[in-house]
Structure formats: structure tokens, C-alpha cells
Amino acid sequence: MICRLADSVKIADLKTHSGTTPWNIKGASLMKTPTTILSESLRKLIQSTSFFSLRWETDFTPCTGITAVVREERRVFAKLGLLIAPWQSRMATAQAALSYGKVTDLNVTLRLEVFPGVFKPLRLLLANAPDRQPILFLAVDGFFQGDASPYATSGLATDTLVFANAVDLLLREAGAQPHQWIWCADWETGPALLLLRSRHHCALHLHNIYDEFLGHAVEKIAYARADVLRSATVLQAAMREADVVAGVNRGFVWSLQNEPAYTKILASHLQAELSRAVPVENANFVPLSPELLALEELLSNDVSDATRALRQYKAAARRRLPPEIRRQMKGRSLIVMMGRRVTQKMIEVAVESARRTLATNPTFPALWFFATVPGDQHSDQRLESIARLCADHPESAAFSDGRIDYYDALLAAADLILMPSITEPHGGCFQAAVVPVVSARDGLAAQVPAYQANGLAAELNHRWHGNRPAAGWCVREELPMNGELALAELRQLLSGPPSQDNLTFHLMVEAFKASIEQAVGIWRDEPRTFAQLVREVLRIQKHRSWEMNYGSMFSHIAAAQVRRSLA
Questions:
Q1: Closest alpha carbon to 94 in 58, 122, 123
Q2: How many CB atoms lie within 10 A of CB 20?
Q3: The domain spanning residue 32 has which CATH number?
Q4: In terms of pLDDT, which residue wins out, 480 or 567?
Q5: Among residues 32, 105, 417, 442, which one has the fewest Cβ atoms lying within 10 Å of its Cβ?
Q6: Residues 6+ apart with CB under 8 A from 46
């Protein structure tokens, strides 16, 4: 039976005031069992939920595409789950949410043992809206100090252990029951899974393959499963003990066990555990608007009328763009490259393919717009390469740095979205009426039925889509070498900025250059064909559903509950 949260939870009822308990007191004489001061309403909120989602980023502490996933999870599971996350008090978005009342400090404090014999106050904050899954934020002074993002802190390793202890304490004090299961995401919540596994059924959901070895951190923190993490990475340990291990789509799960980028480099240490992984498909990051649903229906019935309607839709979207971008458009195709400036996204491939196209055809009928945000340690170098391209070709390339308030209009106006990632578990390749040009890798290949694919891209397209109508371009370079040389070049690409001497990089650039030139040619010369691609883009989004896809996670958990009860 599924328990549902109360339709409305009053924040005032959840609050209670802490007394004058002295914190940060050392000494073995202190009681190891913290004193609970949870209000009855807060206990009821926790006890009435079906499951607890543990996430490291949220709407109010955002970073990557996982934030968009969390936003949709909160919408779909508004009456079912309770999301628990660390409170990143230094983030500007968190401070704004607190200032505007979107997040409320409950004035509830628990006594958390952080270091052996050293206790700190664990404070609780709540984000609650009638149509969204509530978020219970956990705050511990001196920890969860992310700044630009929840991950941007040198203390991330110890933060994950403190968060694990905090969740464990909260659920024990609130009287959470074994039938309430735990839904963890990625390595940052793995330590919590290891603690909670003895009392609850636990699912581990992988949005990426980042991992950590915490052997250096577990010696400092009062963490009950330290012995496990001294001899294994977080994902190794969590995947072994989780009742269910899931990935964000079938292409990602397949690639983890078949693509050399994972089997030989990024996830070689996880291969023994990956046979347990099952795909749980992500749906759209943003629901289709009524206008786009109407456009899809029109495209399905009358391509001629719909082609005119598509032009009108794009023209209206372009009128919402800043004047300087509208000036650069000049009736040309708009190609958008968005995302974090990190190695994975291969922004350099997009920049170099644009440079080579413009070198041979300065009047190429397209404007490249790079809407990127800071990423890894090479982020500034990537931004410099984008800026140089835009300086060399000011009429054909433009960029922004950081979040922009016209991002939705930019995507609505775009004709093509470019994703040359070298690994990509999912990615936001379907948004609005934009046709994707993506790497034939991982989740991208499994999502995008390809237009006239060749070589390995064609093989993957047949595996995932058969004869389904095309919805974009899937690009995969064809290597003239294999074995150790190919693996060495791949390792170099995955380790940082690609070398200009790397043949694989040059082949990726040429493959994307050819596909972009073909895509823009079809946009310009074959509007009916391009409209049919847009129709498939919209149709795929129309038939994807978070409720349907995440139903498989619920079924896997139900099966796990039966298995454990019979063991």
C-alpha cells in the first residue's frame, strides 16, 4: 500500500525551538543517543511518506541536468516522496530562496556526532509547495560549503559522510519504518545508502559515473561503515549493497558494459557490479507547451501548413532574443551549444568544427551560439577558445558565460542543438522544437533516431531504433586504428583539453563538421524534410512520461522487498 503525504503541511506546525543544549562538547561521558526535539507534525510528515529521495542538488541548490531531473521528480511525486538534501548555505540561489520564503528554517535542531565524541547541531529547513514534493534540507555548521555549485568545495568527501550520518539520525529519531524505502542518487549519497541499508530497502540511481575513494576521509568522521569504505570506492560498495541499481536510460546502462570509455577507463573498477544495473528512462526536462503539442499535431497531419507554422513559431521566438543576437541572425539557422565547460561535453569539438566550416565558407548560413557555464579546472581555457572564435567571426558566432535570463527563448528560437559529448549518460538533447546533432554515444544514441547514419553510428541506431523515422543527427568518428593506440587517444581526451595532435579529436571535428553542414543545408533547401525531423522531435517528447518510466523503479523496489522478505 502506498502512503501519501498530507495534502498540505503547515510550516508553522513543523517548527519547534531548541533549548540551550551545549554543542561541540567533547568527552566520552556524553550520551551517544542524541536528544530528539522533533515536533509531532514533522514526525508525521516523515512517517507518512512512501520513500525518501536523497539528492545532492535541488531546485534551490542547482548545478547540472540533474537539477532538471529533480524538478520533474518533485512535480510527479508531489504526494508520495520526501526529498532530503544538504543545505548549501553559501550558494546565492539558496540564500535567495531563504530570503524570499521559498525555504523556511524550521528552528528544529538535533544533536549530531560529527567527529568521534564531538557533536554539532543539525538544523532542518523545509521547501514546501502544494504541487511539489517537499524538500527537507539538512544544515550542519562547517559542512556543505558549496559555493558556485553543491560540488564546488574541497570538503565534498567529508560532506558526504556527514550527510549520511545526518540522514540516519533524522530517520531514526522520526521513527521511519522499514517499508519506507530510500532512493539514492550517485556517489554523493552512497555513504547514506550504506548506513540505511540495514533498516530500509535502498535503490541507487546513477545519473553519471563519477566516483570517489573515501579511505582518507573516513578516518576523521564518526561513520559506522568506515570499514567498508577503506577497501572500496563509494560506488563499488553502494552497488554491492543496494537492493536496486539503476541508470538513466538503456543506452547508458549498455555503454557502461560495452564502450571502452567506461570498460577500460572510467568504470573499469565497477564492471563486476554493473551486471545488476537496470535502465530507468529519463523523460523530458521540460514538458511540451500547448503550442508545441498543437504544432506536433499539425506536423502529423499537414506538413505544408505545419512548415509555415514552424517558421512562424521560430520567428516569434527570435523576437524575444536580445537585440544583438537578432541582429546577427539575418535569417540564418541558429545552432546552440549549451552546458558546463567540462571535458565530457567536448566543447572544443564544436568550436573547431565551426572554425573549419567558416574557414572554407565564410558566408555559411548559420549563427553558432555558445551558452555555457563554468565547469572543471579547464573551464577558462574552453571559454577563451569560444571567445577567440567569436572574435574571429563576429557575424557568425556569439557566446554567453553563466546563466542567462533568455535561455528558454534561445532554445525556442534554435534550429539545431549541438552535443559532441565524449560520454553522455542522458543529456538534454530533446528540448522544444530543436533538432539535435549529437554524439552517437551512451544515452544520446539511445534517444535520437539518426538521419542517414554511417558506420558505428548506424549500428547503434539499428540497435536502439530499428526503422524509426529520424529525429536528428548521430555522429561517430571512424577510427583508422584500434587497440592500445585508440585507447591511449581516448584516455587523453577524457583527461582534459584535447591535444591538437590527437587524431581522434580531429576525426570527431570532421564528423561533426560534415553533419552540421548537411543539417543546415537541409534546413535551408529542404524545409519539408526539416519539418519532418521536428515532428519526430516533438513526437518523442510527447510520448515520454516520468510517471510511466519511473514506474519501473517502483516495480524493481517492490520485487526487492519480496526478495528480501523471502531471504
A1: 58
A2: 4
A3: 3.40.50.2000
A4: 480
A5: 32
A6: 82, 136, 170, 171, 174, 175, 176
